[in-house]
Amino acid sequence: MSDDDDKIKIELTDMRPVTISKRNWPKIASTKDWDNQYEFQANRTWFLAVRQSEKDSRCIVYGWFTSQFQSEGDIYGGTIVDSIDEVIPAIHSVCEDLFPDKPSMARDCINNLPSVEI
């Protein structure tokens, strides 16, 4: 795998996009949904994810909505937070901004976060 294969561009809300290394920012939680029985038949797709830096405690919460319908445009967005403690409010904020009619996406992504040992 070349270094370019490891890089992804993430579009954020009201911020310039960022380019990260997937290796240095592993995905720690995600969820995906679509409007058909099978994803490959989907007209609409929703995606929400959290990546955490291996160098510091920052996290990127981001997602997108894509549509095959000409009357609906694709929507991308996200935010960067300073620590894992800020991730849950960021998930709710990004989810509400990108797909307000799908609050279950936030719940599913939160449930996929690494557990806390108590």
- The parts where pLDDT drops under 50 for at least 5 residues are none
Total number of beta strands: 6
The number of helices is 3
How much of the sequence lies in strands comes to 25-35%
Main sheet properties: 4 strands, antiparallel
Number of domains: 1
- Structural class computed from helices and strand pairing: alpha+beta
Order of helices and strands: HEEEEEEHH
Oligomer: single chain
Strand order of the largest sheet: 3-4-5-6
Shape assignment: globular
> Radius of gyration from the CA trace?
15 Å
The share of residues in helices is: 10-25%
- What is the distance, rounded to the nearest whole angstrom, between the alpha carbons of the first and last residues? 39 Å
Mean pLDDT: 93
Overview of this protein structure:
The chain is an alpha+beta fold. Helix content is 20%, strand content 35%. It contains three helices and six strands. Helix 2 packs antiparallel against helix 3. The chain starts with a helix and ends in a 7-residue tail after the last helix. The mean pLDDT is 93.
Task: Write the SSE topology.
Layout: H1 3-6, E1 7-10, E2 18-21, E3 27-34, E4 44-52, E5 59-67, E6 75-81, H2 87-98, H3 104-111
Antiparallel strand pairs: 1-2, 3-4, 4-5, 5-6
Brief digest:
The protein is an alpha+beta fold. The protein is built from 3 helices and 6 strands; from the N terminus they run αββββββαα. It is 20% helix and 35% strand.
Keywords:
118 residues, alpha+beta, 4-stranded antiparallel beta sheet, two-stranded antiparallel ribbon, 3 helices, 6 strands, globular
